[in-house]
Amino acid sequence: MEPQVLYRVCYGTSTPTSFQKSLLSFRPALLHEHRRHRVLQHDYPAIVPQQCSSVRGAYVRGLTDGDLYRLDIFEGAEYERRRVKINILEIEGNEAGEGNVEGEEVTVETYIWVAGKHKLEDGEWDFAEFRREKMHNWITASEEYDEVDEVIKNHANDPTGGRGLNGSITERLEAKKEDQVLNSAV
To answer: How far is CA 76 from CA 18, 29, 115, in A?
Structure first.
């Protein structure tokens, strides 16, 4: 998932504070024996198992249970979060994967399409095209986030643990960070 889209789902904004950005780390990775297809009549992709194919994506560290809760809502019933093995890329090659140097194998969770291949285009989803032509629709206000925003707004307990853009934990941590900077400047 593109970091700005992930930030929008987890933090409610595609432009989080530097502190919020510091909570997550991204590394390029490969998921073998899977392929990414475009969902019919939509901008977004679906990952499905497929031999002799690979999907380049991101290995994300730092996600909380609250973040996963929001991602589960965002992905909806068309996807299922499953454990898979990926290889972290030590060197990221070109768009075709030429020059990739694979490193450590890691078990992670990702969202696999379960709504049927009949709802997918035959060709592979083009991430570069998405970034170039469609991503601006996904990092601004979009109805794609309405369900996540509504559930979080109406939820009695904040499942993000206060990590949302205006969350109490974020505010306290930023204040503490400012105090530390001031104390170290004295």
So the answer is: 29, 24, 10
